[in-house]
Amino acid sequence: MAWSRRIAWAVSSSPLLFLANANYVWPNSRIDELEKLGALGIGRSFGAEWITNAYHDMSTPDIFAGTGGLDASIVFEMDRLENVGDAFRETLNILKGSHNNRVSMSDLFTLATVVAVGGCSKGKVIVPLKGGRVDAAGPGLSGVPELQQHLQTHTANFAKQPFDTSEMIALVACGHTVGGVHGVDLPEIVPNPAPTDGSKNDITLTFDTTTDDFDNIVAKEFIANVSRNPLAFGQIETTRSDFRIFNADGGDMISQIATFNDFFLDTCSTMFERMVSTVPRNAQLRDIKPLLRIGVDTRIASHPQKIPTECGISSFTVEIADSQTGKTSVHDTGRAGFSPPKEILAMYFLSRQSVITVGGVSQMQLNLTVAKVDGTNYTLYTGIWQRTSAASTHSFDIVAVGPDRTVSSLFDSWDDVPRE
Ligand code: HEM
């Protein structure tokens, strides 16, 4: 209990952390795309890779400058020796298709971690998902902890992240409950790292016997001295970083974790929330609300009205009427009403999609027209885009760059545009 209070203090006192629960008002271009992805799920699970990727990215904040933390700077740091392994490039390759100017790569890294932890724990550890992270434009500080370093180096390093000794032990146990050490990455500590059947070298020594499950078995096996964890009892003493870390407080924390699985799960939830909330000062984290789901028995009351273009809409409310109970409820997020994107309007009636033939190959051609609104004036912009197939889920961003700022708007899908 005393330990949990210490964590709460550390969260509120960290200069880097922005757990600000700023009120979310839809639409919010930094959050909405992430919310949609979170609702859909990602599909394939590379849980261990996603967790280690987020930790490596986050683990080198510059607390005084208010930079670094979870900011996707690892994208520029993959060649560093401290980032050995395929986990980082594979994570990037999986997620980059969902990256656009509405959702940052660091928010995607976070989403992947939340999905991985939730999936491997079978829903027992739900890390609150917030969005609004801002990606770094280049590499950040180096200094991700490495397995051959002394305990004092690790303790000092985690203190900068910032995690104290108990928290360091907990966070490492939370990370090392899934996955393991790959022979292809660290052949010096994986005996017989190369497969003998000529297949791709991916011999892995797992941290515990339940490598796909998010549970306290990594700690139980460590305490019982039956651990297979190569970072605890590997053949080379110098690279037994887990052994040194788990014993850093005389074994108190790792024993508690080993004894109480619920304590482990609660602690990991707190630790991971801290980890993904360590963000640069210029990022404002906001809650991700579940998408508004409308049950089969409800209908949205609509009051169709023609709005003259010179007036426009500054905000609107949504009224949901339950056809069975007759009850109605009005939704106006933030009590100010939903406000539609004002600056760029899609002109669907001036847009067309058609099929053309280029070099004997049929291609979809999209002619998009948008209006850039400036007070009561507007300017029409038209763009053409071609592709060989029409993917109905593809989003298009329309960006208008002006002397003072840039505004953008999104077509949510190819199907938004009328066919000829
Ligand atoms: C002193 C601290 C740490 C050291 C020295 C360390 C070291 C390592 C090493 C050497 C590997 C094997 C990499 C490979 O084979 O490619 C590994 C894997 C992993 N680490 Fe850590 N780690 C530390 C802390 C953490 C923390 C705090 C987390 C998460 C919160 C974490 C999550 C993971 C995960 C999930 C894997 C498995 C990756 C996979 O199977 O692909 N580690 N770690």
Structure characterization notes:
By secondary structure, the chain is α+β, with helices and mostly antiparallel strands. The protein folds into 2 domains: 3-287, Peroxidase, domain 1 (Orthogonal Bundle), CATH 1.10.520.10; 317-407, no CATH class. It has 12 helices and 13 strands. It has helices at residues 2-13, 32-40, 47-58, 87-95, 105-120, 151-159, 165-175, 217-223, 230-233, 241-246, 252-259, 261-277; strands at residues 130-131, 180-182, 204-206, 286-287, 298-301, 318-322, 328-331, 344-346, 352-358, 361-374, 377-387, 396-401, 406-411. Strands 8, 9, 10 and 11 form a 4-stranded antiparallel sheet that branches. A 3-stranded antiparallel sheet has the order 5-6-7, with no helix packed on it. Helix 3 (47-58) packs across helix 5 (105-120), helix 7 (165-175) crosses helix 11 (252-259) and helix 8 packs across helix 11. The structure holds protoporphyrin IX containing FE. Residues 83-315 form the Plant heme peroxidase family profile domain. Keywords: Heme, Iron, Metal-binding, Oxidoreductase, Peroxidase, Signal. It holds the Pfam family peroxidase. Residues 1-22 form the signal peptide. This is Peroxidase.
